[in-house]
Amino acid sequence: MIVYEFTLKTYGELFTPANFDIIIRTVVMAAAVTVAAAIISFPIAYYAARYARGKWKAIFYLGVMLPLWSSYLVKVYSWKLILAKEGILNWLFETLHLSWFLEAYLSIPVIGGNSLSVSWTGTFLVFLYVWLPFMVLPIQASLERVPTSMLEASGDLGARPGQSFRYVLLPLALPGVIAGSIFTFSLTLGDYIIPQIVGSSRRFIGQAVYAYQGTAGNIPLAAAFAVVPILIMGLYLWVAKRKGAFDAL
Q: Domain count of the chain?
């Protein structure tokens, strides 16, 4: 018999070591993917905004948008093959004698052990590839709004290129970075397919929701887990709005 009562007991279960570890792991992964995407996207977007003209700008948009036209599952399974122990990436590391780097610095036993396709690093790389276009386009749109005259004035006043970037370009482009981070952070936070296909046995929030409402049959705990990304993104969007990120969408 089902007993309906108001209780916060299920939310308290989120703070047990096993469940809280899932939340922390997911947030750390989402933050790492977001930071890496911003670092990689900024020079690409800057080149497109400042130097690409005519057909080169069309090629830029085609290169950024083309991965979005292919199937999500096809991309994930393709990366699973690329990152496998028999895949091209592992072959490349062994050919260039860089396997020691993975084993020594990333703690990934490549030779005679597990592959990148069942590692935290492999999951990170696939997340980064899949969501990267969602970071490039907002930054590029934000950089196009920055007048070239402001950078020229900064140089005329004696600022070095690094100072112009830090004190002029980056603050003006920050709304675009935050706008892109909304996509990369939220999509990573709720995804369960990539960690399921390319990843280790350690769960993320999306996998926990899927498992608890499915095979485990614990729907209340699945619902409690589902609320976590909503609360995190609610706070994130509030901060983003205060930073003017919505102007760059």
A: 1
How does pLDDT run across 104-160, given as a tens digit for each residue? Answer: 555 554 444 457 787 888 899 999 999 999 999 889 888 888 888 888 888 888 888
What interhelical angle do 205-213 and 17-50 show, nearest 10? 130
Q: What is the pTM of this model?
A: 0.84
Domain with 228, as residue range(s), is 11-57+131-248
Q: Residue 88 corresponds to which tokens in the numbers above? A: 């091209």
CA 220 to chain centre: 28
Let me know if residue 148 belongs to a domain.
Answer: yes
